[in-house]
Hints:
This protein is mostly helical.
Amino acid sequence: MDMHFTQRRPIGYWVKRLDVAIDEAVDRALARLGADRRQWQILTSLLDGPADLLEALSPFGGVHDALSVLSARGLVAEEGERVVLTAEGRRVQASLAEAVGGVRGVVGRGVSAEEYAATVGLLARMAHNLDLLTCGEVGPKSG
């Protein structure tokens, strides 16, 4: 990749570009296995046992619809007030996790563990800085 080109684009461009690219790649990988992101999130959330999915996934929409689809496919079942994975649900979740892991592997290709950790740390620090600016704890020019 041309370094001059990458340096002309601000970090916000690359963060958004990467976010969209990851979302699209994950969505395609899940769709090939007959699932969508919400279904994958639900199946993954249930790996450790029954969960209150409405609370865990409350920031996201579509939980009820996804649960209906998973239930109709025999991947989840109700146990009283809770939802649990069936044996088939565990098998499907493992296939979906493998597909998502493949996408993550492509994302990290050529990136060392140190580079990855440094990048995540850098992005977290930048987000924290903007949080401080938003709540008025730091001005735009202060350090």
